[in-house]
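Two records follow; treat each independently.
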Amino acid sequence: MSADGSDLLAPPKSVTLISARLVLSTLQMSDLLDLMPILTSSDVMQWTSSGPIANEQQGRTWLSSRALGTDVFNFAIRERHEYNRDGERGTIIGILGSPDWPEVGYLMRPGYAGKGFATEALSIFIPAFFERVPSALVSTVDGASGGGAQGVGYDYLEALVDVENIGSQRVLEKCGFTKVLVSENDFENSMGLRSTALFRIARPGRTLPELGLLVGDGVVPWSEEAKPPIQ
């Protein structure tokens, strides 16, 4: 058995999402070497709680938690015009997905930020997430709504982002997310004590007020362990 226990988990079902410029394919352990320029970049990883990955072994551990298991829903982002060129899939320019439902996060390869790729990738991920993850509403025997009772799914997607990371906040807003809370000085990384903004978007047909997921609704904003996963 490997040190990180990754051989105990099977990879998820392979999914491919396509937009005008991008192809998102299910993240795989074989993607590790192509991901290392992202994971070892201080400019990219400065917005995360973990900071840059130091070596390939750490990268494998990081990747195994996002590429293995039936419930992981994470993607490698590639440019569409490179994806089928000479049978090659092209360079991974970013990572996006939900290692823990209902959170979403992404990282972009150095040199690829600010080109609209993150917004484009997130815009096709959102409907795929709600298709993959069941609704929180329980259905009764006759198929009627269970009156809002909580089930095993989720009717929202949320993102945690450093309050100084304005670019990523704009990406979220362009994709329909709403900033619902700011938590001051709630985690520490290489840049010191940081504050976090919480963004949420409701499943189509639902609203954040209806779900009780706006500020002042009395819901726990996020778990103690949650840290900003968005670049």
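The next record belongs to a different protein.
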Amino acid sequence: ESEARTAQARAAEEWSNGERERIAKIKVEMAAERQAAIEERDAYWQAQMPGMSSISDSSGIR
């Protein structure tokens, strides 16, 4: 019986590790999408109002 319990505990641990990895991956993807959206918005505003400096200038995007 203790072997079955150990196997169950191990399976639960592997699952939670997998979940942690999956969540971390999602967070990275979301951060990348948010960054892309910010850069897109900056580019849009610069196109609308040439000469306006925005956050993009500091990152070398003109």
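Discussion point: The chain has a mean pLDDT of 86. How would you locate this feature using only the token line?
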